[in-house]
Amino acid sequence: MLAQLNPPKVSAAATDAAPLPVIVSDQLFGDRSLICIEHHGQRYYLRRTREDKLLLTK
Length: 58
Hints:
The chain is α+β, with helices and mostly antiparallel strands. It has a domain at 23-57: Ribbon (Complement Module, domain 1), CATH 2.10.70.10. Helices cover 16% and strands 29% of the residues. The chain contains two helices and three strands. The chain has helices spanning 12-15, 25-29; strands spanning 34-39, 42-48, 54-57. The longest helix has 5 residues, at 25-29. The mean pLDDT is 86.
């Protein structure tokens, strides 16, 4: 599991809300290297590369 070194900047309004949920990529991928995410009727593909990076494509 890789630690996030530089978390994204969050607006002041967002910090008042509930904590941001964290989803471990291994929970999404299991033993696969490609998953499909549907968002507003569009399909996106999240791929784990050989270098263990994440790549999101439409």
